[in-house]
Please model this.
Amino acid sequence: MKIECHIIQNFPPNCLNRDDTNSPKDCEFGGVRRARISSQCFKRAVRDAFAQHQSFSPKLRAVRTKRIVEHVVNLVTAKGRAPEDAKRGIVTLLTQVDLKLGKDRGDDKTAYLLFLPERKIAHLATILDENWDALLSAAQQAHATRQAASAEDAAAEPNAKGKAKTKSKSKDTVELPKELKASVESLLKDSRETPEIALFGRMIADCPDWNVEAACQVAQALSTHRLSMEFDFFTAVDDLKKDTESGSDMMGTVQFNSACFYRYAVVDCDGLQENLGGSAQADLCKATVEAFLQAFVHARPTGKQNSMAAHTLPSLVLVTVRRSGEPLSLANAFVKPVTVHKADEDLEKLSTVAMRDHFAKLSRMYPEGLSAVYACSLDDVDWDSAAITPLQTVAEVIKKACGHIGTESRAA
Model:
């Protein structure tokens, strides 16, 4: 079963999600430029909403970080261990399970962001503490191996072209006890009962068997209308400037826009439950979908919010329940850009009506697997033509949709 969330949300002047030139992201859709907010930006905002609303207990939360070494060192140091020894121990432990650190030898960060259950990092610190002597011995042996390799490289004779011979690879050849390596690999691989990883997935190129297929997909948010990019010219005055001096002490420009967005996400409930640990996690699966929908509705990117405060909530939340079949975005409702022609017309309502009409056509053409549709809107809209059940609050929409989880037959 799949649950989809379709949102219409209008933002006042903002620069919520910037590109490499510090400008709001945009793209072309339907032959015209559109404002855009990336899916990664909204996923981050959803995870921030999880934390803000305390959607899950701390033992169910995940951490996405390159700083696992620093975090573990802090945990072990709190138990009375020496920081430098703790660092050598955890670095040895991670490299022995094929997790790469930064290119520079002194870099404490991993080569890529790791998405891990937070409770597993605490457990990793416990393993380091319990195997302290063995890990420090392995770290010393690895250091000796690197020193020998460096000495060998320094003594290498130049080749015929006057260049030094190829440097020997200083790969650490120290092996930890198999039982210890196996326990660490099993610990870090296991992501069950971790909603964020179950929803958004995990990919580690060096350890492909640790990968988790995401049960949730989030679309790039697109403006329902043609983009009009604008510039804000700003100045700043020095508080300690003398009254006899004129002018500002800083000036510049920043791009911004104001746009009404169509947002879309879909959750594969069967895949989510499997990621969480199977049928035994049916209750956690339902709670995760509820938390995700609530967070997705309230998620707002943080870019330039201190200077623009674009804090608005959706004017429409529409949720579809599909017992089978493929998910269907309604983005094509806006292939023809929504345009306000009259002074009394409302861009949000026009976008809502366009989406409703497109959904009605799409569901008539592809009715397979559609089980229920619920909507909540600020605008007075006739939903009968699209066979949509209107409700008063977003909370009701989420509750009704999630009530189907566990009652619908699992898709083949």
About this structure: The chain has two domains: 2-56+213-402, 64-155+178-192.
